[in-house]
Amino acid sequence: MKICFxxxxxxxxxxxxxxxxxxxxxxxxxxxxILKFDENKPFYEILPDIEIISTHSGVxxxxxxxxxxxxxxxxxxxxxxxxxxKFDVVxxxxxxxxxxxxxxxxxxxxxxxxxxxxxxxxxxxxxxxALKRITYPxxxxxxxxxxxxxxxxxxxxxxxxxxxPMFETSYKDNFKKENLILAAGRLIxxxxxxxxxxxxxxxSPEILKSWKIIIAGDGEERKNLENLARELNVNVCFAGxxxxxxxxxxxxxxxxxxxxxxxxxxxxxxxxFFNCARISTNCVAGPSDLIxxxxxxxxxxxxxxxxxxxxLEILIKDENLxxxxxxxxxxRRENFSVRNIGEKxxxxxxxxxxxxxx
Length: 358
Hints:
- By secondary structure, the protein is of the alpha/beta class.
- The chain has 14 helices and 13 strands.
- The protein is elongated, with a radius of gyration of 21 Å.
């Protein structure tokens, strides 16, 4: 099959990494093209036989009216592209690009699959919500990450839950674990790193004295979080954005997620492959799909630093429980292998092509 992916750019990010992994897997048997709009080189590895087309249009933050122009530039670029090239299927990533791709396909006969990578409550704009309601039913198919979203998108006929695949890593269970507690992600409000710091502050320094705590990631809340850590007298390393996050996974004994909302939560999936014991808030949506509370990890109430502190202290003290959680979580690995997710995508693509052809 000739398959084209459409995404705004290939910088660092969860959806960008998923696209890269998926495109690489599919390229072994299919002809893959990626359409993007920025001029930056891909952050993640893309195999050389994949064609990348950059339009250099509609990038950069230009204010309200500039953003309107930016969207229109992207729309024109996509429409010209869809008229010029022919594919068996076009797969767009992320809601704004999904809408623009479907609009650009108006009057054309390309089969468009749209892919959501956040939960639907993240989108606050009433305009974009309305545009999704108008355009999404015309898609040949819609992929999403959770049942929470599957149950919402009833206005799209063909849809499937296709969770994210694990990225390729050189580590093959030869981990040299340290007394390391890892939290990772964009430093923004809904990721709840303030709750993580407050939870850590409630644990006795005597218990934590032999442990290192790292927050990997960057974002608009970094300065506030650094100030909060000082106020709470929490000894934590802000590592900034880490390209090779697998190096930290390989060392960490415990991974903590304190998000207020998620689309899927890659860190909870990825850390399974590195034998990390996991604690997460039971937020919308994703963690409950990845952790069976008390069996292969702990789930805690959102914004409850006391419960998180209690569960974290239990894991710090109890090596046997950490090992039990790791062993149980390892049974989930095959669910997220590149091969398994890639084959599910191929099946879904063929179904979408077949059903829209009838």
